[in-house]
Amino acid sequence: MAFFHGGTHTKTISDFLDFSANTSPLGVNTEAAKALTALSMDFSILAAYPDPNCTELKELLAKFWEFDGPILCGAGAADLIQLISLVYGKNVQGTAFNLIIEPAFSEFENALNLVCHEDKILHLPLDEKNDFLWTEEDFNKFEKILAGGVPLVFMASPSNPSGNLVSREMLFRIADACEKTQTVLCLDSCFCQFSDESENTVRALIKESKRFPHLIILNAFTKIYGMAGLRLGYALCCSEVTYNSLVKSMRSWSISTDAQVTGSAVIRSELKGKPWQKQIQNIVHKEKKRLVSFLQTQDLRIVDGEANYVLFKLSDKLQKRAEDYALYYETKVVQKKERSFSRKQTLFEIHEDIVDPPSAPLCRAMAKNNMLIRGCSDFFGLDSTWYRVAVKDKDENLKLIEKLKEIFSYEH
């Protein structure tokens, strides 16, 4: 199965205003830029192998998160997701399944497909009617699934694409349930630093980390620090056993010197109280409010979570207007290519007529204005009426709103 991601379908960054990738609205962290500039002035450091243990970076991360357990660094969160799948998701036998809480980052399934048969991947979709928030009914289903044998669970808080935060109480209940069945719980928290509430929830879990030896908390420098191109992520492993199992299967020298030096500079700055993260939070809060206020005036449904993006679903009327707008401005109709999607194990019936994300009507209509947004038809349980837009700076968001107004008011 081919997977689609935001921020990966343009030839050059300058071609489009890109609202499809959920990275920092301020671009790369200033301390990261300084560190890279310093490296470019003295290439001698690059002649030696990178520190295989990422010693300085791990020490700084431990201080930042107030975490006294082992930390594993990788070439981005996706690299660690594959490693965790390789170690804990393979050789699933009998009635057991690996589990993904949906809708979710497609790399969870992508990684599991490398190590187990698709029939051994179970999807638990949170209900659209509840804005994809955890309910008591969802938790009861979760416990029943765990009882059947689940080696590995992938979930996120805030989640992608909804941006929803799992409440502190529910997160602890989920982690406790996984401990009872000795299930490895991989919690993707890559967007947690975009709001105080989401970060504090993760920090509360970290304080109780010894209670959850099967818990792995993922994070990365990609989003909040605008460092997608450097590929640097890390996993807070809540036990030495988990950490050691992962290290044994890890590639040698997987984290480059420039990534380590840059990451260390960023966290060192955070520990000194530099205002980067608070700056980002203030911009995201203010500009997200602007986007949501506009979207609330339109005939659509909004899921407004805690991350730096907004998920929304167009009505049939607006979807039709976007389609008409796109067709009018296209010199030729884009032929939709057939895609072969893997059959998924799920508790619910799903539709197989999935449209390629870039071919969704509003994506095509925005592309005619040199803007990219994320079509969400490849997220589990979502169709081509769902879209996600990243929060950028004021000028860029105003341009987005202007074009959305034009498209939503278009009459064929």
Written account of the structure:
- The protein contains 13 helices and 14 strands.
- The chain is α/β, with parallel strands linked by helices and 412 residues long.
- Strands 2-8-7-6-5-3-4-11 form an eight-stranded mixed beta sheet, sandwiched between helices.
- Strand 9 and strand 10 (309-314) form a beta hairpin.
The order of strands across the largest sheet is: 2-8-7-6-5-3-4-11
Strand elements, count: 14
Describe the largest sheet. Answer: 8 strands, mixed
The percent range for helix content is 25-40%
Mean pLDDT: 91
Strand content: 5-15%
Gap between N and C termini, in Å? 36 Å
The total of helices stands at 13
SSE string: EHHEHEHEHEHEHEEHHHEEHEHEEEH
Low-confidence stretches: 9-13, 332-343, 348-353
Q: Which class best fits the helix and strand makeup? A: alpha/beta
Topology:
Layout: E1 17-18, H1 30-41, H2 55-65, E2 71-74, H3 77-88, E3 98-102, H4 107-113, E4 121-125, H5 136-147, E5 152-156, H6 168-180, E6 184-188, H7 196-207, E7 215-220, E8 233-237, H8 240-248, H9 257-271, H10 276-295, E9 300-303, E10 309-314, H11 316-329, E11 345-346, H12 361-367, E12 371-372, E13 374-375, E14 386-390, H13 394-408
Parallel strand pairs: 1-12, 3-4, 3-5, 4-11, 5-6, 6-7
Antiparallel strand pairs: 2-8, 7-8, 9-10, 10-14, 13-14
Helix pairs in contact: 1-9, 2-9, 3-4, 5-6, 10-13, 11-12
